[in-house]
Each structure stands twice: as structure tokens, then as C-alpha cells.
Amino acid sequence: MLAAHIGAVPPGGSIDWVTYYFRDLRLAHALVEAHKRGVKVTVTLEGKPRIPHANDDVIAVLSRASGLGNALRVVSITGIPSPPGRAWKPQLHEKLYCFSHPQPIAFIGSFNPSGNMPEEDPEIIQEIGDQDRGYNALVGLTDPRLVEALVKHAKRLHGAPPGLFYRFSADANRAICGIDTTIYFWPRMRSHPVIKFLSQVNSGARVRVAASHIRAGEAVDVMTGLARRGAALEILAESTLRRVTPRVEQRLASAGVSFRRIRNPGNLPMHLKFVLVEDNGQTWSIFGSFNWTQPSFRLNHEIAAISSDPALFQAFGGRWDMLESERG
Asked: Residue 96 sits in a domain of what CATH number?
């Protein structure tokens, strides 16, 4: 899908990407070809992800004179002082893919182009999972207000890479309001918008959470609080115990949360990050790049959306039903 959108942008159009893992050389070469035919391309990429060398091959292709040159921006944000044995390093964890043609559209969600065919480094795929075939989501936003603001956000990150004080800026703390969808960014000084939203959900509501990572105590507190005040809370979680720990699972189950792990027969990762809320006859979808972890809450650059669009709720609901059929 991303390759098709790259190919559809004519000379004079624009492509603006921000992503965390990027190993797909086919997509890298497609971006270079778009650049050569006169498309204005910017790519902003995390320089040192969790697997530090994962992006190196794509960076080599995009950074050379025959590639994108200065249109590639590799970001490595300085860490902050941390206790011995721990590393508190902010990472550019956003997944944002903007295209000017055939109509302006901005994709946000959980998908990184982290696979490569043919795969020459199976150890990386074993560590991060096959995200090309695993469970992921990208939502294409076409509301002009949202697209314009997200393109500006991508260009701003490319033009002036963020530092440790980015969280104090107006850009980091503002909300982008569309017709039925609001976009939020991290790191931020204001309260966590998803936590705030869930804290206001009424008893009797139904809340469904698909989560690849749950480790933050604050997140577990909100989830158990929802269950204890009468909301029906269901969680479908990744099977990896590092990403969703047994202690978290025990706390949630003890509070009456319906908790299940997704164990795909082919060992494919469950990398989805979305929440479905049904409350007093209204429905909302919450989705983006954010995880329920302290780095995501406090350090990383993330994007999330809260939407009342019924078509989105239906689409995510269909994905939930599919996941349930493969639960562990």
C-alpha cells in the first residue's frame, strides 16, 4: 500500500515520512525514484532504535548523493540522566506517512516498514517480529485540517530535530481537532489524553484494548480502576512476556479484567495499539503509535488519535473479532 502511494505522487507533489524502524529496501528505492522524478520527499528516521543497527542499510541507501541526500534526517535524541543499569533515551517512535496525491492523505498507526525481502537478517525479524505479516494498523486520514497539520508536523521534525526541551513547546502540547477526530503528540507536559479519556468513562461502559505492550503502572491503574467501577474491560495482548509481563496480567485478572494473549500459529507479532469504547450509546476509537509503557508515556515521540467516526469504530471492531478467533 505504501509503495502504491509512493508511485502515485507526480512530479511537484510531496511525500513526508516519520518512522521508527525502516528496513524495507524496496520502499527505500521507491522513495529515491520519487525524489529523482521531482517529488519533494522528506524522511525523518530514528537513528538508534532498540535494535541499534536495524535501520543502517536503508540509511545507507537514502543518505548517499544518489539517494535523498539532505532530504533524509536521521534523529538520535540525547538521553537523560538515569540510574545505573538503566537507559532513559527518548526515541522517535511515531509512524506517519503523508502523501499529497492522488488526494492529500496522512497515515498514522502502528506499522513500521521493518521487514525486507529477501530477508538477509533473520535475527532482527526474530527479535522485532515480522511486522509485514503481523497484526498492525495504518489509518488513512483525509480530513484537510488533520492532513495539513500532520504534514507540518512531519516537516517540522525534519527541519529542526527535537531535543530534550521539545516537550515544553506549544507544538508538543496542542491538539489537532478535525471533524470527528483529534490528534495528540508526545512527549508532552499536559496530561496523557488517552488516560484522561478513559478516566472519564462511565460505569456500564464496554472498553476493549488491543495492546502490544503493557508495562506502565499508571496504565494498569487506569485499567483496573475501570473494571472496579463497573466497566466491562477486555484486553487482547501480545504473547511476549517482555512486552506484557506476567505481573501486569495478574493485576488485571485480579481486578476482573477479561485478559487474553494473542498467540498466532505462525509466531507473528500482535503489534496493534487501539482502544474501542462504547459508553451511553456513543462509540470511540483510539489508535496510534503509543504503547502502555513508561518510555511511551514520558520520553518517546508518539502520535495518538481519538475518533468518534463510526466507520473507523466498525473497522477496528472487525479487526477485534478476527483477533478473538486467534486468542491464546
From this structure: 3.30.870.10
